[in-house]
Amino acid sequence: MGVPKSSKLDNSSRRRSSCTTPMMDGSSRRHSSCSSQDDAKRVLRKNNDRLQSKLDAVLGEGPLRFGPPCYQPDFMTQFRSLCQKNPHLVTAYAATKVEYDDWTSSRQGHKANKDFTDAEILRVVQYCKYNESKAAQMLKKTDPRYLRVSSQDLEEQLMTKTLFPLDPSLTTKDGQSVFYMRPSRYFPKQHPTRAVISNLMYVMNSVYQRTGTYDDENHGMAFVANTNDWTWENFSTDYCLKFMQGLQGMLGPLNVDLFLIVNPPSWFNKVWKLMKPMLSSSFRRKVHMIPETKLHKYLAPGYEKYLPDEFATGKCRTDQLVLDFVEYRMALESVTSSATNNQRLASFGSLNVQNNTESTNNKDDVQDDHSISEDDLCKPGKSFGGGSHGSTAELTEHMSFSDLNASMVAWKRR
């Protein structure tokens, strides 16, 4: 019952036959899966092209360098695609949601703003490598507003030029995108910690959104801190702790793979003694304190052209870089926003990151001592059986929200 031999079949016919020829082991399911995946990819490309066209119509070359945009499909499209690659996703997602829902029910009224969308939960499960215990733990520690803050909310903070992504043409030698901070522009006693942490999470999220599609796990990024003109007035232990948690992936499904502290002052060893205990052992190996002259060891050749002119060797105008980034993000968020999303976001309220009435030493900002560490995230999750890879693909081919709810009910009864 194999594919009949035919010298007359051209290459395209052979490719079609690989998806459509009946076989004893159930190729009709594979044909349906193959067709649906191809259709999904075509729709994704079409939506990306449409989104790019809209941005091309309103933006110039400068802002457009922060593209191209990556269209995010609806939740079920993402879920079906990921399930076909990982048979454990159904049970991992269901178990995570059940555990998190039970936790929120038991703490009703204790902590506000802890509702996550299905897509956000899926992203956390994927980030935690399908380990439902780690994923549920991350949901408990994450403020979802960090994942939803907009450029409009953060415009004033972004325009301080404290923290922003660099031109996407600048990468590390490993191909990671780079974002940048000038710590001397942030004064903990004058501005709330939430402002700079929101800035950090927003920039990391924007890099994540640009560096791949929803089913691409390669979202590596690097962080360059230019410590020129940095003084003790730009430092506080509370702010440092929260910032280090954000870099390590303890505040949300985002982390950096390389941290370069450039031109550290002579007294930085005192800061390092305070900072070191805040970092996991694996993350410490990603931190490098270097003079500007050593950047070539980590950044791809030609980096000087895209490096901010705040460095001696940098040739990229810092002011224009920030303006272009803010303009691009505002246009992108305007094009991709919808009335439904606006209503949902409004229900959670504003981060109010510029509210100076917030205490600069807000203990809520630093009390997450039990956040999951990067080392924990590297541990393997529980293994869930309950079917072969083929049966999972068959289940997810026409999966609906009711199917997911049934999975969660079944998991809860275990």
Supply the key terms:
414 residues; Phosphatidylinositol Transfer Protein Sec14p; 5-stranded mixed beta sheet; globular; disordered N terminus
Question: What can you see in these coordinates?
Answer:
With 414 residues, this protein is mostly helical. It has a domain of 191 residues: 3-Layer(aba) Sandwich (Phosphatidylinositol Transfer Protein Sec14p), CATH 3.40.525. It has 18 helices and 5 strands. A 5-stranded mixed sheet has the order 1-2-3-4-5, with helices on one face. The longest helix is centred in the first third of the chain and has 32 residues. The protein is globular. It starts with 10 loop residues before the first helix and ends with a helix. The N terminus is likely disordered.
CATH topology of the domain at 148-338: Phosphatidylinositol Transfer Protein Sec14p
Strand order of the largest sheet: 1-2-3-4-5
Label the overall shape. globular
Overall residue-averaged pLDDT value: 77
Number of helices: 18
State the helicity in percent bands: 40-55%
Number of strands: 5
- State the major sheet: 5 strands, mixed
Rounded Rg: 23 Å
CATH architecture of the domain at 148-338: 3-Layer(aba) Sandwich
Run of helices and strands? HHHHHHHHHEEHEHEHHEHHHHH
Q: What is the strand content?
A: 5-15%
At the first level of CATH, what is the class of the domain at 148-338? Alpha Beta
Q: Please, what is the CATH homologous superfamily of the domain at 148-338?
A: CRAL-TRIO lipid binding domain
Class computed from helices, strands and strand pairing: mainly alpha
Uncertain residue ranges: 1-24, 338-399
Distance from N terminus to C terminus (CA atoms, Å) equals 42 Å
